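All the exercises in this workshop are built on plain-text protein records. There is nothing in a record beyond a sequence line and a structure line. A learned vocabulary of local backbone shapes supplies the integers on the structure line. The question running through the whole workshop is how a given chain folds. Here is such a record, shown just as it appears in the course material:

***
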Amino acid sequence: MSLARQVFAYSQWRGQICEALEAFGGWLRTQELDDALSGARLTGLLERLKEDRLYVAFVAEFSRGKSELINSILFAGYGERILPSAAGRTTMCPTELLHDPRKPPGLELLPIQTRREPVSLTEYRRRPGEWFRLPLAIESAHEVKKALRRVSEVLRVSAKEAEALGFPVGERDSALLPDETGQVEIPRWRHAIVNFPHPLLKEGLAILDTPGLNAIGVEPGLTLSLLPKAHVTLLVLAADTGVTRSDLSIWRQCIASAHRHERLVALNKIDSLWDDLRSAKEIEAEIAKQARVSARILDVREDRVFPVSAQKGLAAKIARNRELLVKSRLPALEQAISHRLVPVRQEIVRDGCQQEFTDLVGTLRDTLESRHASLGEQLCELDGLHGKNRNMMQFLMQKARQEKEDFEVSLQCYWNARNNFTRLQTRLANHLGARGLEDLSAEIRERMENAKFSAQLSEAMRAFFAQTRDKLSQADAEIQEIQSQAEILYNRFIMEYGVRLPRPRPFSFLSCERALAELEAWCETHIDNLANFFTREARFIRQRFFMEIVRQTSDIFRHARDTSEKWRKTIMAPVETHVREHRKHLKHRLENIRRILKAGSSLSEHAAELKERREAITQQLKTLETFQHKMERRLEKLPGQEAGPESKSAVVVA
């Protein structure tokens, strides 16, 4: 299945799940079954699904034809190159191509001067006022192309200014060398976001176009926050040069070393090997050899390396030349991307939705079954009241009141547990709190400022990670204590009240620990190396460390706080539901006896009313089961084979 078809099918599948969740939420509201916690969980799940994107990252050194490859895959239907593509450097800053329906089409550019502030790229994404915005006239391909040339803009600044902005001038592997006047060219923009209503982007595809190694090295946000969220990362090489030293550096530092779903290699510009003086068999052997050697150097399987000609593929699509398109081998690469992109992301989304929806349905089922059992008990009690005199009825009312009072007294263990959970959560928040991280950062900053040797800088950075790992470890200990206390509380309620309660769902900071480990590995590769191997000012090292490492650690800790708090609320939900439902049960018992005593009404009338309510709950349980079966079928259903609507999509050759 082509990339376009896969993306459209995935979008349709995701849309069907959203429709099912919205229908479920509507039913909960009409049945008055929604509460604050379940409503928040359902809303959060819907928001995550609607904002879900399929990220493909294109990574390459300059002049590898990366932008041309994106043009051939995404923009061939417009009849010309949309992204700037020419010899030399074209993409000077990381560029995201996506569609956000909440905003008008436009190009958002973050000035390079923002690197002076100790604020990460992640934080700047929350500050729309810091970005320069340019509207896109999407009805004109020429105007869009003209606007997107802005990502290629550069500034000429002094070497000192460039270094103040974090660019390594005149160092080993650096492409920034001062001219005769002492000036260098640096990117004008730090980051670009293109909000474009392309059919595939509207369906959730997102493209990350990166500049070369030099820009990756000075913008850690790429390797720390953008590249890790890519579901497929594609390294673009040139067939005539193979794997160069800078290509290998990009692969090792930014792709192979990080946890990522899928990694592919495009061996571009195979048309440079086409030669009229050689046979087709000889040309094929040369291309196969380059692919084989590239796979060996990068330590990947050969079937992950795709020889391709982006330029010929683009020309073939525009001219609708099937023979040239096949010769360019572009369809094979598109198919590989689609086959690895959609199934991987679908599995992640499916597992997340299934777990969240199953938990929601399980909690709701427990509530309904508790109500059903309560009504059954009340019916049995009413049946036992037949033939009882008024004195006996008053005795039963006194008994019901006593049971209610006894229940409230027995809830002391519940309130004690809640108070204990609050205490543990406070301790947990202290371990993960922003204040503690700020104090640690201040301590490390002082150590780095007082460092006289590179080894002392490295020791300070390692101390930062050691202490942050310790904070996560202490937080995990609090989580285990909360889990243990919840087990005790659940067992007590099960034994004393005979209720069914699901086992507390386990929780860990494993994802946060992994993110912190990757951050430390990046620091050792990029910043620690600067301290050990390059002659740089300590101020520059500190700036890089606090601009990205500390800020990214803060984001990791914020995520840990948010997820652990959500889990704590979830773990108490079943017990809180039982307490609420048992109170209602005791209240209804008192009301039934009171109404009989006060109005002298018929026991059979009350029994009929209770039976009607019980039957309604039986129907609710059946409907709940139907919703669960429908959701399971939709989650398991693979994206269909139908293509999306006719449009200027990536595939235009029939």
Notes: The two ends are 13 Å apart (CA to CA). The chain has a mean pLDDT of 81.
